Amino acid sequence: MEVSEGGVTVEVPEKRHGASEGSGAGVFYNPVQELNRDVTVGVLRAVADECDTYLDAMTASGIRAVRAADAGYAVTACDVDDDAVALARHNLARNDLDGEVVHRNVNAHMHEHRHDVVDLDPFGTPIPFADAAFRSAGEYLCVTATDTAPLCGAHFESGVRSYGAVPRNTEFHAEMGLRVLLSALVRTAARYDLAARPVLSHVSSHYVRTYLRLESGARAADRQIEDLGYVDHCQQCLWRRHEATLVADPVTECPNCGQSTWTAGPIWLGPAHDADFVDRVRASIPDTFGTAEKSRELLDTVAGELHRPTHYDQHKLYKRWSEPAIGMEEFLSALRAAGHEASRTHYGGTTFKTDAGVAAIREAVL
Ligand SMILES: C[S@@+](CC[C@H](N)C(=O)[O-])C[C@H]1O[C@@H](n2cnc3c(N)ncnc32)[C@H](O)[C@@H]1O
Ligand SMILES: [Zn+2]
Known about the structure:
Blueprint: E1 2-5, E2 8-11, H1 34-46, E3 53-56, H2 63-70, E4 74-79, H3 82-94, E5 100-103, H4 106-112, E6 115-120, H5 127-136, E7 137-145, H6 148-152, H7 156-163, H8 173-190, E8 194-204, E9 207-216, H9 218-225, E10 228-233, E11 240-244, E12 262-268, H10 275-283, H11 292-304, E13 312-313, H12 314-321, H13 328-337, E14 342-344, E15 351-354, H14 358-365
Parallel strand pairs: 3-4, 3-6, 4-5, 6-7
Antiparallel strand pairs: 1-2, 7-9, 8-9, 10-11, 10-12, 13-15, 14-15
The structure holds S-adenosylmethionine and zinc ion.
């Protein structure tokens, strides 16, 4: 079956596990990830003046490599799977694009070869590839994680094992997942005296995606460590507190309602995006991309998000207060009128970030 995406046409398997249908029949392709790929190419276009080479570390059908080559990059595509390698070669050729396709365990490849941009898009957790990826990536590392249940604390032990942090399944679970992932990536980079600075991150349809700008140097890496810390959270009234520290000093009782609290960490508490970078990416998404409108909307919301490590859901607060919810604009205006910062978030239509605590929010909007 042929699919066209972002100006290229590639062959992908009809269905995922149609084993006997010839070369490539079992190769992975997920149309739902088109937004992920459109944003990726937006990033590649936005950083084209500083980057030339791109590694599609787990290429499957080759779609990312084909799109990156079409955007002018010198691409390398890698996969361990025979059929994937054949299909990726075929798809580059059918678009008249050059690119090297490597049939290898990408960890071995990444320990030996450097690329300006490395893109990890594995099944599940990217952690088994993180060390090698930081050896390989010169300027940017792009990471997808699809194991959202471990990341957000719904599969607690698995999250602890993979990420070396305590995840908690709070009301802001999607952001918990992102910040657990960022914590593990920042700590992994630091082992190599590298600072990994998130410049764009989003959580969309059951995956987490982040783009990290890399900077060499022990002191730069130290500064990133300073943005790791803990969040205490009350499941009862949604009160929370965060503290940047590696030595946890948790609150055990909610000061707002007296319930016992949960502590998560070390998670990443620093900025998950750089608004100027996100604006540049937004401007690099052409109208011709299939998800142009959705991608731009997502990037607009991300660019406007406050740099706070957690968010609230307006509807969930009103439910706890047994009061009817109000419109988002009215709600955000009420917070601002009371002197607080407030922004929407991309985690959901009724989610917001603010510097106000849960009691101050209530006072401002009720
Ligand atoms: C989720 S798919 C990649 C999807 C693709 N990037 C896209 O956008 O459609 C993961 C791929 O990683 C490959 N893979 C798994 N382990 C690998 C390894 N150690 N080295 C290289 N490729 C690997 C699998 O064969 C599979 O094709
Ligand atoms: Zn409470």
